[in-house]
TrEMBL record:
PANTHER family to which the protein is assigned, alphabetical: TRNA N6-ADENOSINE THREONYLCARBAMOYLTRANSFERASE, TRNA N6-ADENOSINE THREONYLCARBAMOYLTRANSFERASE, MITOCHONDRIAL
InterPro entries with a match to the protein in the record: ATPase_NBD, Gcp-like_dom, KAE1/TsaD
UniProt keyword terms in alphabetical order: Acyltransferase, Metal-binding, Transferase, tRNA processing
The protein's enzyme class: transferase
Biological processes, Gene Ontology terms: tRNA processing
GO cellular component: mitochondrion
Pfam families attached to this UniProt entry: TsaD
Domain called Gcp-like: residue spans: 39-109, 110-289
Record protein name field: N(6)-L-threonylcarbamoyladenine synthase
Enzyme Commission designation: 2.3.1.234
Catalytic function, reaction form: L-threonylcarbamoyladenylate + adenosine(37) in tRNA = N(6)-L-threonylcarbamoyladenosine(37) in tRNA + AMP + H(+)
Length: 340
């Protein structure tokens, strides 16, 4: 999760201010927030086009771009907020998880709530019981959702399609774990078969839209079913509040997945909360807000003179995935077809 290092505390009574710095993968972000969640200033440098041109994220390139842009991004966030560094109460920075070389550079809810994280490198379902207390219900077994969509898009040569040139890609068990390696392999086989029929590698297939749509629907259905089972498990164990239980979906900005999840939450009586698309990529706001939450509760706060280590791969909370599987919860059928 995220940790923050403490800075200078105000001697007068006023809202505490936190600078958040995000460098976990391929975006360099910074933001200044007050403790009510108001964004006073933010800045973001995207590496998206560089990595698109390279065919994927290259850690050494991401590291270099973070190093080149972090000072400018932080200064822009401070300038836009009108806050001097000496006025900050604390600085929050990403320390786990993420790309090691990138990390080296740099909720306002009534608990508990269910959280679904779907990103380029991570997919997981967890019950958030507190600011630093989580029950891990399911996680990625092989490939993450975002990475799978990226590789399928690359294999389909979607960069050569005028509508997609600037876009990144995006066995039934009784558990909530995610597995997308099989989907990737099936799509690769289907594409290879079409290429053997006379289409040169790198050229757009006549069925490119069908394969892309089928891949997205299969992935969305897989995510929805795991989420449905997680909801039923949490309800059976009394882990969700009776009043206004909530599912928070983080990171993924895919509208198709969002609409599929809405079908599940409507059927199970949960309230679906999704951040705006602006905050569905790496950004400093989410780090600063995590710092605000930790500052309020006095958790994970360190002195500026203490050493802080980053963790490229970090387990989340208490792993109860085996207990979820042993519960053998069957999910009722839901019509997950989304009309475009």
């Amino acid at each position: 999760m995220k940790r923050c290092t403490s800075g200078r505390v105000f001697s007068t009574v006023r809202s505490r201010l936190v600078l958040g710095i995000e460098t976990s993968c391929d975006e360099t972000g910074a933001a200044v927030l007050d403790e009510t969640g108001v964004i006073l200033g933010e800045s973001l440098h995207s590496q998206k086009q560089t990595h698109l041109d390279a065919g994927g994220i290259i850690p050494t390139v991401a590291q270099r771009l973070h190093r080149e842009n972090i000072s400018k991004v932080v200064q822009e966030a401070l300038d836009r907020s009108g806050i001097e560094p000496s006025e900050l109460t604390a600085v929050a920075t990403t320390v786990k998880p993420g790309l090691a070389l990138s990390l080296g550079i740099g909720l306002d809810f009534n608990f508990p709530f269910l959280v679904l994280l779907v990103s380029g490198g991570h997919s997981l379902l967890a019950l958030a019981k507190g600011i630093d207390e989580f029950l891990l219900l399911g996680q990625t077994l092989d490939a993450a959702a975002g990475d799978t969509l990226d590789k399928i898009a690359r294999r389909l040569s979607l960069r050569n399609h005028p509508e997609c040139s600037s876009l990144s890609g995006g066995q039934e068990l009784y558990d909530c774990n995610f597995s997308f390696a099989g989907l990737r392999n099936q799509v690769t086989l289907a594409i290879s078969k079409k290429e053997r029929e006379g289409v040169e590698k790198g050229q757009l297939l006549s069925c490119v839209k069908d394969i892309a749509a089928a891949s997205q629907h299969t992935m969305a259905s897989h995510i929805a079913k795991r989420t449905h089972r997680a909801i039923l498990y949490c309800k059976s164990k009394g882990l969700l509040p009776q009043h206004n239980p909530t599912l928070l979906r983080g990171v993924a900005s895919n509208e198709y997945i969002r609409r599929t999840l809405k079908i599940v939450t409507d059927a199970t009586g949960l309230h679906l909360l999704c951040p705006s698309s602006k905050f569905c990529t790496d950004n400093g706001v989410m780090i600063a807000w995590n710092g605000i939450e930790r500052l309020k509760q006095g958790k994970g706060i360190m002195s500026h003179c203490e050493e802080v280590n980053y963790e490229p791969k970090a387990p989340l909370g208490l792993d109860i995935t085996s207990e979820v599987k042993d519960a053998a919860i069957k999910i009722p059928p839901l019509k997950l077809r989304i009309n475009s």
